[in-house]
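Please think about what follows:
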Amino acid sequence: MSQQPSDTAATTGVIICDHGSRRAQSNASLEEVARLFAARFSDTPIVEPAHMELAMPDIALAYSACVARGATHIVILPFFLARGKHWTRDIPSLTAQAAAAHPGSTYQVAEPLGIDDLILDLLKKRLDANDQPVLASGQDDPRLADVEPSQRRIQCNTCPFSLDADTGVVSIKPGSGVVAAGVRH
């Protein structure tokens, strides 16, 4: 575990890290979150976005950017809900690799967003907004108007599930460790 720096010994840099997406609009959202975080919390002026995979900047580039801006201690804030494998394995591994290129720096990976009253308040805010279309069973969702039917279900490479494009049947990938109906695959 990395040492926690004293307030006088280090300048803290923050990396807000999400999964990353093939959609530029999704990745731009994280950049906006990082910009707004830096603007709201002026005591933390060194804030960089990072995507764990699929897009740039990645953790290594964001870590280097923090160091270049004067940070000696880097805190990774995962933009994830739970302690999944990205939090327990991927982000710590990628951060350790990034830190190795910057001797003398320290880092820590913060808890994911988790179950928090603020998350519950945000969910209630979305419920109360009632700003999305109400659709009847079988009715086309307008968000899919420009998406070909064959492209409406995209298979995630890291997902433990498999989609048969012809039948639309979803199954569990062998060896994924996912348990279904009491059977371990």
In short: The two ends are 34 Å apart (CA to CA). The CA atoms of residues 18 and 79 lie 5 Å apart. Residues 1-9 have pLDDT under 50 and may be disordered. Helices lie at 24-40, 59-68, 85-100, 117-129.
